[in-house]
Amino acid sequence: MVDLKKFAVVHFLRENSVEAVPRSWISSNQLTCAYPRKFPQNFESLRSNEESVPPAQWGRYKVKILKSYDSLEKANRKANKFLVTSDVETTDCDNPNTSAILTLASSPPTDSVILPPPPASSIFTGINLGR
């Protein structure tokens, strides 16, 4: 099923950080997300535009999509909830009465691309995600 919601809360796997982003920044296979290493002056304008195209110089980072929303405001509220409660175990497809554990692959697939370090500029960096 195609998710038609315009914004997503993503978990940057390497840095263990959470951010609300337009779905247009997420790859078609939903495994990576474009994100700047340093915030450009127009970052909030780009992030609030559901159809924004990330600049080519931004890095691509491995992510897990936690939840999708119709507005950036709702996505930001959920990202803040993850920051406060460290509740990143529930995703769109999880049963709300059970919790799944986020797991990282012990070794990347052979066809994977080595990505640069995750974004250090996330506004939700440094949270404890239960690991």
Automatic annotation (TrEMBL):
This is Uncharacterized protein.
